[in-house]
Amino acid sequence: MPTLLIVDDEMPQVRALSAIISKMRPKYEIVARTDGESAWQAIRQRPVDALITDIRMPNMDGMELIDRVHRYNPQLKLILLSGYGQFEYAQEAIRCNVLEYLIKPIGQEAIHRVIEKLEAKWEEDKQRRLTESLFRGTLWRKLFEGKMNPEEYAELKKTVVKDGPGLALTLDFPEAAAPFAKGELENELERRFSVLASQAVFHSSSISRRFVGMLWLSPYYSVRASESYGKIRAIVDDVVNSAELALSSGVSDVHPNLFENAEKAYQEAQLAASLAFYETNQPLIRYSAIHEFVDPNSHNVSFSAARIAEGIRSGNRQLVSEDIHHWITDELKRRRLSPEHFKTECANNLIQVLNKLDSLIQESEKHRLSEKARQSMASAKDWMELRSRTMDWINEVADGVQQLLGDTHGTIIKRCQEYMRMHFNEDLSLERVSAKFSFNASYFSNYFKMKTGTRFSDYLLGIRVGKAKEMLLNSSELIEDIAHEVGFSNSAYFIRMFKRETGVSPAAFRRLSGSR
């Protein structure tokens, strides 16, 4: 949604112009000011796409305003208003790339012509930026990954208007940014950050859902680091609120020559962003506020797999919960491991617990739980989610172990078998039967085989084929009907399974048995 700033010391003129434009383009945001100084402050505080300003105004006239704006943001479209044919300003207007010069009173036809001209320019700029962004993004990624050759470095340097003070910024989105079409988010970010940067370059990173920005700070902000960070924080908050996107971001230190130090600045911003795993309430983290992470090989682990495994065996959930809580809390206090190493360490610790429960868990189930631990920990977005997933995993293991230990005589399995014999003709699945007896499906499958010597699916097939034999011998029902009555939805599949179990087809079984 474009934002137009209208500046005129005659308020009726401002209202009339605003009303006409709003009627022509209801989605435009119109900002009104009555003097050049307040207009200049507005441009520094928020993104503006076009400035329509009178020339003669108190405090700061229109010519001084467009001169400042042109130096501050050359991409902002400028339109001059005047009550006279003051063509002595034409040379200055040309120098500042003024798009249109309107003489008051301004008719609707002139306004409509200016709006169409603005929209054509915006579309032209948009297409140019999209094309440049794709090429530029590839070069920036090569630079950050240390894969750039001298020719590419020289080509990328040409895209920088003028090297100078600036910083790197990373923005990590949890998912694709729905409010923006592909390729447009970079342009939207560049537009928003233009209020503090003489040049802002954003592109998607090789890291999924990450956008990287290089901001060459305007002269005003380049000597006001604290104010720059505050402005960046405000813009990030605005992106979060307006697009309803939860994101985390990291920002580097300010470097005197950003392009020359681009790789270092990116690494600083990337490291700062990684700390969002721990700082869940901080959408923007500064590199200067963090410390370096330690080598994971030199890390002292306070985790006791044997103690937690014993707590699972004995059914002491409170002990297990407290140990997990203390271990994670201890890690959070130190924050010495990078998030990726912390996730890996957590998964490895859980697998150690499995190894301590080796006699109670079959190999296939150990493999499944090990993979689940790795995948679940790796995809945790912050430490709170990691802690929650850890406890969910522990509880799943504990539930299965306690069910196995509590059924020493196989009573549950006997009840399951009885239930299967009574309901064999229904849509009977492993998930349905395990849920009926409050089992985890995977645990139930392994336990069933351990107690009966056969798989659940084979046991159910035996019941159904046995019942089908009875019906083939004692009735003249069609084979297709018998298949449905014993629980098969597909008669061809029934015939195939029957032959696998008995060695003959249902029709041959009936014929050989001499039944009707």
From TrEMBL:
The record, for SMART domains, names: HTH_ARAC, REC
**Where does the signal peptide begin and end?**
none
Identify residues that carry 4-aspartylphosphate: 54
Which SUPFAM superfamilies does the entry link to?
Answer: CheY-like, Homeodomain-like
Secreted is among the record's keywords: no
Q: Which Pfam families match?
A: HTH_18, Response_reg
> Can you give the residue ranges of the HTH araC/xylS-type domain?
414-512
PROSITE patterns in UniProt: HTH_ARAC_FAMILY_1, HTH_ARAC_FAMILY_2, RESPONSE_REGULATORY
Q: Can you give the residue ranges of the Response regulatory domain? A: 3-119
Q: Does the keyword Flavoprotein apply?
A: no
Keywords carried by this UniProt record: DNA-binding, Phosphoprotein, Transcription, Transcription regulation
Specify the protein name: Response regulator
